[in-house]
Design a protein that fits this description.
The complex is a heterodimer. The model of chain A has no long low-confidence stretch (mean pLDDT about 95). Chain A is mainly β. Chain A is built from no helices and eleven strands. In chain A, strands 2, 4, 5, 9, 10 and 11 form a six-stranded mixed sheet that branches. A five-stranded antiparallel sheet of chain A has the order 1-3-8-7-6, with no helix packed on it. By secondary structure, chain B is an all-beta fold. Chain B contains no helices and eleven strands. The termini of chain B are far apart. The chains are: A mainly beta, B mainly beta. The interface between A and B is medium-sized, with 23 and 27 residues.
């Protein structure tokens, strides 16, 4: 089955710096890769996702890149702000597959220091 | 973002109690999910309903019993739980697998404590 590895487990940056979180997946059939942000005590919130037919997607300060050959994808946050502090989870699944279940990475705790 | 709602927010129950968690979505989605999340861990899939039919049961103990009365509602019935079942229980919904799009959207969760 699919396995998703996520690094680093913790990341501390200064406000205004960029943050990068990386994930690798094992199943070459996976073709849908969402990212979730979870603030303490709150629900996971879908912040961006990418399908395997594109290599990069941007939404304001957030971008995701995908390298299908290497089977890894990354979340890039530019101009970080204290409110970006949260745990970020990457996930992989087979878009259009019969089950739709997400396989999550173990999470990255991002701390943005003012 | 309140399009997936869950009740109650918090629940404390004894090991002999029977209780139910409820989830409702108003996005017209046809797939709904129950996840269990322990502190500092990712969500762990428990059940998937697709078009109101159970399509995945991830080897969950029988003390957890899901029910999908209609396409908008999802219940999780709890009976004879153990203290290790204490966790955040998250509901999610998406357009059904096999359709053109299925980002999963989570509810706020029920914080369950088993005493």
């Amino acid at each position: 089955g699919e396995n998703v590895e996520q690094h680093p487990s913790t990341l501390s940056v200064q406000e205004g710096d960029s943050a990068v979180i990386k994930c690798t997946y094992s199943d070459s059939a996976s073709n849908y890769f969402p990212w979730y942000k979870q603030e303490l005590g709150k629900r996971p919130q879908l912040i961006i996702d990418i399908r395997s037919n594109v290599g990069e997607k941007k939404d304001q300060r957030i971008a995701v890149t995908l390298n299908k050959t290497a089977k890894h994808f990354s979340l890039h946050i530019t101009e970080t702000q204290p409110e970006d502090s949260a745990v970020y989870f990457c996930a992989a699944s087979i878009y259009g597959g019969s089950q739709g279940n997400l396989i999550f990475g173990k999470g990255t705790k991002l701390s943005v220091k003012p | 973002d309140t399009e997936v709602t869950q009740t109650p927010k918090h629940l404390v129950m004894g090991m002999t109690n029977k209780k139910s968690l409820k989830c409702e979505q108003h996005m017209g989605h046809r797939a709904m999910y129950w996840y269990k999340q322990k502190a500092k861990k990712p969500p762990e899939l428990m059940f998937v309903y697709s078009y109101e039919k159970l399509s995945i049961n991830e080897s969950v103990p029988s003390r957890f019993s899901p029910e999908c009365p209609n396409s908008s509602l999802l219940n999780l019935h709890l009976h004879a739980l153990q203290p290790e079942d204490s966790a955040l229980y998250l509901c999610a919904s998406s357009q059904a697998p096999g359709t053109s799009w299925y980002g999963q959207y989570f509810g706020p969760g029920t914080r369950l404590t088993v005493t």
